[in-house]
Amino acid sequence: MDMNYNCKTIKLNKNIIFIIICILVLYSFGFLLGYLYIEYKFIDKNSQNITSSKNEQLSDDSVLDLKENTNKDNNKVLCEDAYKKDGEKVAYITFDDGPSKKITPKILDILKERKIKATFFVLGQNIEENKEILKREYDEGHSIGNHSYSHEFGTIYNNLDAFKKEVEKTNMILEKTLGDDFKTRLFRFPGGSFENYKNKFKDYIKENNMIYIDWNALTGDAEGQNVSKEKLLDHLVKDVEGKEKIVILMHDAATKETTLEALPSVLDYLKNNGYIFKILK
């Protein structure tokens, strides 16, 4: 009888131990599942926060890009609208006869430092010698216009065919240098478009979906060599008096050292007198 009792006791104890082990295993498994669930929720929440943060950052970047693009668009004005009065004082800085190795890069440095854009009317023959400078003008957001190939009046205005060749050759050089996608509608006549004998050339420009523009203010840097920077500024001050919209003629040819010297004072004067700077398109 004692033997049977002991066997039953041992069996009962084994069952109890087995039950306890099962309970401990189940408890441990439940604890593990709970831990994993909490970890998953924590990771998922952080992931959402990171994604949200990235989306907010992307959204902020998109807003900045949009503002930058909007500012760029607002900075460009159709030639047809350049002189339209709307109460805003606008200065269009334009340079003719470049690019040149000696002057143009330094002008670009000044404009870049001051975050001002300009319009460059370039000569085809000068582009061929200064392609990288032209690319820099374009890459830095300046506007590019055609100013003929040679600037030789006797050649350009000899007849309509000669004029066409000057314009078309420079347009081809521009496209070859800046890419086939580059097109400019801007043209400036060497010497301006003021004379009646240029009417047939003006018609050609219009018929070929281009537009020409002269100027209504200048520094006088083409009226002599090495005109002092003080005289250049004085000339401009007199020219812009009382004008709301001004298209300013200057030159970045290799000999225009005093134009370079006068440029910071010219920009300061215009800014201090309420002008903002825009480019032509």
From TrEMBL:
<keyword id="KW-1133">Transmembrane helix</keyword>
<keyword id="KW-0472">Membrane</keyword>
<feature type="domain" description="NodB homology">
    <location>
        <begin position="89"/>
        <end position="278"/>
    </location>
</feature>
<dbReference type="Pfam" id="PF01522">
    <property type="entry name" value="Polysacc_deac_1"/>
</dbReference>
<dbReference type="InterPro" id="IPR050248">
    <property type="entry name" value="Polysacc_deacetylase_ArnD"/>
</dbReference>
<dbReference type="GO" id="GO:0005975">
    <property type="term" value="P:carbohydrate metabolic process"/>
</dbReference>
<dbReference type="GO" id="GO:0016810">
    <property type="term" value="F:hydrolase activity, acting on carbon-nitrogen (but not peptide) bonds"/>
</dbReference>
<keyword id="KW-0812">Transmembrane</keyword>
<protein>
    <submittedName>
        <fullName>Peptidoglycan/xylan/chitin deacetylase, PgdA/CDA1 family</fullName>
    </submittedName>
</protein>
<feature type="transmembrane region" description="Helical">
    <location>
        <begin position="16"/>
        <end position="38"/>
    </location>
</feature>
<dbReference type="InterPro" id="IPR011330">
    <property type="entry name" value="Glyco_hydro/deAcase_b/a-brl"/>
</dbReference>
<dbReference type="InterPro" id="IPR002509">
    <property type="entry name" value="NODB_dom"/>
</dbReference>
